[in-house]
Amino acid sequence: MAPDKDLQNLKNVLKKHNQSHLLAFWPQMDTAQKQNLLAQIRRLDFDTIDQWLADYVRDYTPAHPPHHFTPAPSYAPVPADPDQEKKYTEARRLGEKLTSQGKVAAFVVAGGQGTRLGFDGPKGNFPVSPVRNKTLFQIFAETIAAVSEKYHTVCPWYVMTSPLNYHATKDIFEANDYYNLDRKNVFIFRQGTLPSFDLDGKILLAEKDTIASSPGGHGGSLKALYDSRAIENMKTQGVEYLSYWHIDNPLVNLFDPLFIGLHVLDAAEMSSKALIKTGPFEKVGNFCLIDGKVTVIEYTDLPDDLAQKQNPDGSLLFELGSIGIHVISTSFVERLNKDGFALPLHRADKKIPHIDENGNLIRPTKPNGIKLESFVFDAIPLASKSIILQTQRAEEFAPTKNLTGLDSAQTARQMMIDRAADWLEAAGVNIPRKHDGSPDCILEIAPGFALTREDLAEKLDRIPRIGPGEKLCLD
Ligand code: UTP
Question: From CA 284, how far away is CA 271, in angstroms rounded?
Answer without folding.
Answer: 17
